[in-house]
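BUG: 3D viewer hangs when loading the predicted structure for this chain

Environment: internal workstation, default settings.
Expected: structure renders.
Actual: progress bar stalls at 90%.

Input used:
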Amino acid sequence: METLPFNACDYRCERCLATERCAVFKDLSAREARNFALGRDSDGLGAALRDVGEIFGETRNMLAEKAAEYGIDLDELADAGPRDTFEEAKKDPLYLSAFDFMIQAQEFLKTAEPIVLIEGCDFLEDITWHHTVVPAKVFRAIGSEDDPEMRFDAVNSAAVAMNSLTICIMAFGALAPLYPVIERECKELSLKAMELKQYIGSRFCPGS
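C-alpha cells produced before the viewer hung:
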C-alpha cells in the first residue's frame, strides 16, 4: 500500500480515513511514542517548539546527506543568491485570492460564532479549520510550481487546497438554510470558494 506524502495532508487526523497510509500521521505517532519513551511531554507550546526544532534539525541533516550524495555544494548555492520564491509567491494573484478568501472567512466566523447553535457547530468547525489550509497549501504549490522535480509537490498541495475549499463550500451550504441571518454571507463565500477552487484546478490540475 502506497504511503501518502507529507504534502497531501490537511493535518486533521481525527477525521481522516487514510491515516494508515499517511506519512504525516506515521511521523506524528512515532514522535509521540518517542516522547513517551523519553518521559517528555507531547502537549503544550514548549513541546511543540522542541519538536519543531528537532524536525528542522532532521531536515537539515537529510538535505546535507542528499547534497553530498549528488555532489552538491550547499555553501555555493547559498552564495549564488537564489531567487526569492517566498517573495514571488506572496505577490502571485492566485495566492492573493486565496489569502483574501481566508480574511473574508475570518470575518464571517466572527459574525457567525455567536449565532451558530449546536446543530451548526460541526460545519462552523470545518470552516474554522479549512479556511487557513487554503492559502497555506496554495502558497506551497506556487513555490514548487516552477521546479520540474517538485511538480508532484505543487499538484499535491493544490489538491489539498481544493479539498479544503470543497469542505468549506459544503459547510456554507449547510449553514445558510439553518441561519437566515448569515445566509447571504454563506452564499457569497461559497461562490468565492468555488471560483478559487476552479482557479487552482485550472493552474495545477488541468483536465482533472
